[in-house]
């Protein structure tokens, strides 16, 4: 399902870890990998690197994509390379749209120090704005990425964005031959201390169960029978999801970039942000179309 994969790279250790996974994906899906390096020429970046001119940055970028291309060739993966300059997140998003990319893969952070091309804020901006799914990988995690994915988790709150993520998650589980897990999380802390808490809990649980049933029906219609359909409670939404990931040995979590707002909503944008930064496994984020956001 992923035929054109974009991998923005800065040659950092984080990028190297993520690139190994990109090649695994490319081999399995017979995909072409687009290797992009962006020389950050924004004013703040230039001020941090007074000794570096654009030409030097471009030369470093060419060397970075060339090394990545050589690694890809060793696994018979087709590549397209490009080095450009500008504001990294804008260049990445523009490239993904111009070249009809199916998936963007990025580490959660890149180089540290003066020569940073891809930093955390770049990844976060791409996650929030890209119109295609973005797979983020924590390069500092000690664990090994399991691939092919065996267990895929899709948390849902019933929002348009979460439903879009559900569609992608079901497709990934189908393409990878993985088990599909559906989760609706309820944050106990959000209820507070109130004499009506029992009533609130009952209403939330009923709503959450309906969301799970609807999601399971969608998956079944697409030919994927969920392995589990869980309504879980925890101190926070993101912690509940992380706990489920650990307990069920999940290999990939698929989430919307933002969800509903209000008291009885489960998956908020801040939850996705937190998962991208802290999840021990890859996180595939999906953004709903602008009109549905």
TrEMBL record:
Leader peptide range in chain numbering: none
The UspA domain, residue ranges: 1-138, 149-287
InterPro entries: Rossmann-like_a/b/a_fold, Universal_stress_UspA, UspA
Record-linked Pfam families: Usp
Top-rank lineage group of the source organism: Archaea
Family matches, as CDD domains: USP-like (cd00293)
Annotated family: Belongs to the universal stress protein A family.
Identification of the protein by name: Universal stress protein
Organism: Halogeometricum borinquense
């Amino acid at each position: 399902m992923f035929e054109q994969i974009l991998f923005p790279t800065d040659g950092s250790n984080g990028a190297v870890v993520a690139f190994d996974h990109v090649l695994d994906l490319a081999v399995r899906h017979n995909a072409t990998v687009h290797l992009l390096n962006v020389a950050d020429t924004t004013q703040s970046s230039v001020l941090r690197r007074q000794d570096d001119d654009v030409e030097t940055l471009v030369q470093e970028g060419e060397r970075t994509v060339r090394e990545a291309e050589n690694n890809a060739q060793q696994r018979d993966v087709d590549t397209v390379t490009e080095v450009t300059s500008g504001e990294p997140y804008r260049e990445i998003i523009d490239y993904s749209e111009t070249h009809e990319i199916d998936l963007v893969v990025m580490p959660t952070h890149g180089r540290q120090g003066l020569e940073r091309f891809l930093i955390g804020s770049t990844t976060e901006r791409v996650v929030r704005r890209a119109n295609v799914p973005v797979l983020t990988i924590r390069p500092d995690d000690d664990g090994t990425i399991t691939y092919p994915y065996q267990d895929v988790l899709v948390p849902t709150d019933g929002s348009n964005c979460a439903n879009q993520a559900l569609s992608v998650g079901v497709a990934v589980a189908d393409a990878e031959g993985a088990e599909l897990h559906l989760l609706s999380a309820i944050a106990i802390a959000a209820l507070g201390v109130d004499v009506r808490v029992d009533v609130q809990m009952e209403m939330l649980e009923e709503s959450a169960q309906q969301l799970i049933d609807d999601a399971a029906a969608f998956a079944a219609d697409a030919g994927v029978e969920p392995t589990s359909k869980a309504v879980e409670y925890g101190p926070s939404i993101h912690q509940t999801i992380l706990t489920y990931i650990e307990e069920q040995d999940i290999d990939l979590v698929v989430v919307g970039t933002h969800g509903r707002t209000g008291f009885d909503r489960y998956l908020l944008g801040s939850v996705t942000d937190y998962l991208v930064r802290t999840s021990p496994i890859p996180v595939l984020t999906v953004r709903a179309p602008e009109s549905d956001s």
